[in-house]
Design brief:
Shape: globular
CATH architecture of the largest domain: 3-Layer(aba) Sandwich
Low-confidence stretches: 66-74, 545-549
CATH superfamily of the largest domain: P-loop containing nucleotide triphosphate hydrolases
Structural class: alpha+beta
Helix content: 25-40%
Strand order of the largest sheet: 27-24-26-25-29-30-28-31
Radius of gyration: 25 Å
Distance between the termini: 66 Å
Largest sheet: 8 strands, antiparallel
Oligomer: single chain
Number of helices: 14
Number of strands: 31
Bound molecules: guanosine-5',3'-tetraphosphate
Strand content: 25-35%
């Protein structure tokens, strides 16, 4: 009798926990805002936070944006990166939905940081400048989104300025980004004559007024577009143009399919002006309605559902402490499944080590606070004294790890040269830790163990040199190396791969996991290698499932 009662209580508790997990899961949305620099990512982020009540005034958040002047002022970059720790993850509540907005650096030299952050989100909002359309960085970011079928919502910004024709913009999005798009709102003019947008799904007119101080949109319902009141609101000419445009749109597009959006095949498009607070509420309301709840992830032992009750998560970012006297770092953990509890023991799968965390932090706009529990979709900060590498998995027992934090081929390669033989240990340790943090990639050339550092931008070399000197007291210089791409290789004929590795020994480096990597001297020689060794597949990302080479 007594035992039964205890069992009953345990079961009740269990189902209480699963209910709570499910509830928390359903009310979370984890996403990133991405854009080519200057399209308006920072402005939009800030406006979203204003709506979420996470900040009170515009300008309160210094986003991860690294300003243009910073390229020549290294300390400024570090300071900005320091500030950006607090705003790397911005959590806020909007209409009872817990939104986790992950910031990504705008500077192209930190593109790899952005790619990794994209592995930790469930969807993205892509900001496009209406005048510039699709730009170089937009294309690359979208390639990464497509690799993982991440659902995308497009926000065409700066409608208060003269820009490209909206139909042309839609075409450009489809052709340059290889994704189907569908407008869910439609602009009425642009620039000086911009009057607002019509929301196609909600059948609402959203009227624009420049320099609006309030944050809410000015909405009028128009379920019947023939309503003469529309002519009064917009003037006859603009009302007629809107009717004509919408006729065309409704004729061309099928009814909007949320499933196609969720599978990453279709991107809904909204128009607005972030700096004028215009269209932001519409975007946010649509976002919480459409965007996916936290999704599971593919692991080495199959797909782990987010509703799975046993806890798991992965590290996608590591940020060094800026104070050189404290070597500890903050590791950013994305929770994939189950509930994370403070003080509980978890398995660090790579090191097969039990760890528990007494000060896990959540990030709410400018503040960091210690949390007791966190749920799938959440990102928490763990203080780390050097145990974590990017891509590490924590579980409550399982010994699987998450795939899909790929390394991308760097674009600039330089040899790291030690300037002080007495400090080679410090240099070795420093470069290892910096590459664990993902500042750059390290390849060791064999034989001789020469160290090749690969990065996306020049800026990282400055970062590495400065940090090695200040945090590890090691002096170095870099010598340019004429490599074009780093290629990971797969084959079903190991003997041919062995032959290739032997023949190209001077161009083979070992990556952080000791995988051989072909450091191709030029595009031409990479193509030659592909022709000569058709049995070998050369990948420019270490995530072999999704090749973008
Ligand atoms: P980013 O993070 O994508 O790099 O872009 P950011 O938000 O910093 O915006 C880049 C510039 O575009 C900023 O101007 C910003 O004010 C402006 N902007 C953003 N949204 C709109 C919009 O809807 N309409 C117009 N006309 N401009 C917009 P800036 O002069 O570079 O900086 P600031 O001095 O205004 O901060």
């Amino acid at each position: 009798m007594c035992v039964q009662r205890v069992l009953g209580t345990n079961q009740q508790q269990q189902s209480h926990f699963s209910m709570k997990l499910k509830e928390e899961l359903l009310r979370r949305r984890t996403f990133a805002v991405i854009s080519h620099p200057d399209a308006g990512k920072t402005t939009l982020t800030e406006k979203l936070l204003l709506f979420g009540g996470a900040i009170q005034t515009a300008g309160a958040v210094k986003s991860n944006k690294i300003t243009k002047t910073a390229t020549s002022d290294f300390m400024e970059i570090e300071k900005q990166r320091g500030i950006s720790v607090a705003t790397s993850v911005m959590g806020f509540e909007y209409k009872s939905i817990k939104i986790n907005l992950l910031d990504t650096p705008g500077h192209k030299d930190f593109a790899e940081d952005t790619y990794r952050t994209l592995t930790a989100v469930d969807s993205v909002i892509l900001v496009i400048d209406a005048a510039n359309g699709v730009e170089a960085q937009t294309e690359r970011l979208m390639e990464v989104c497509r690799m993982r079928d991440t659902p995308v919502i497009v926000f065409i910004n700066k409608m208060d300025r003269e820009g490209k024709d909206p139909f042309d913009l839609l075409d450009e999005l489809e052709t340059k980004l290889s994704i189907k798009v569908q407008p869910l709102s439609w602009p009425i003019n642009m620039g000086n004559r911009f009057k607002g947008v019509y929301n196609i799904l909600r059948r609402q007119l959203n009227l624009f007024s420049p320099n609006k101080t309030g944050i809410s949109d000015d909405l009028r319902s128009f379920s019947d577009l023939q309503d003469p009141a529309l002519d009064v609101e917009l003037g006859e000419r603009d009302a007629a143009q809107l009717r004509e445009d919408l006729d065309l749109i409704l004729g061309v597009y099928d009814p909007f399919s949320v499933e196609r959006y969720l599978s990453g095949a279709l991107a809904p498009v909204f128009f607005g002006s972030a700096v004028n607070n215009f269209g932001v509420q519409e975007l946010l309301d649509s976002f919480i309605e459409l965007a996916p709840t936290p999704r599971g992830r593919e692991s080495t032992e199959g797909f782990v559902e987010s509703q799975n009750e046993s806890f798991s998560g992965f590290i996608f970012k590591i940020h060094a402490n800026l104070d050189p006297r404290h070597r500890d770092r903050i590791a950013f953990l994305r929770i994939v499944s189950g509930t994370f509890n403070r003080h509980e023991f978890y398995t660090h799968v790579r090191q097969q080590k039990q760890m528990r965390f007494s000060n896990p932090t959540s990030f709410m706009a400018q503040d960091k606070e210690i949390i007791d529990q966190a749920f799938p979709g959440d990102v928490i900060g763990l203080y780390d004294s050097g145990n974590f590498k990017i891509g590490d998995t924590l579980t409550s027992g399982g010994s699987y790890y998450y795939k899909g934090i790929p390394s991308f081929s760097p674009e600039i390669f330089k040899e790291l040269i030690n300037l002080d033989p007495l400090k080679s240990k410090q240099l070795e340790k420093g470069i290892e830790q910096l590459t664990d943090e993902g500042v750059a990639q390290l390849f060791r050339l064999q034989p001789g163990n020469r160290k090749v550092i690969g990065t996306v931008g020049e800026l990282q070399f400055e970062v590495i040199q400065y940090r090695l000197e200040h945090e590890y007291k090691a002096a170095c210089r870099f010598q340019a190396m004429a490599f074009h791409k780093a290629c990971w290789m797969t084959t079903d004929q190991p003997s041919r791969l062995q032959e290739f590795l032997r023949r190209k020994a001077d161009n083979i480096g070992l990556d952080k996991d000791n995988n051989p990597v072909f450091l191709a001297p030029s595009g031409f020689l990479l193509n030659m290698a592909r022709q000569d060794y058709p049995e070998i597949v050369f990948h420019t990302t270490s995530d072999f499932k999704s090749v973008v080479s």
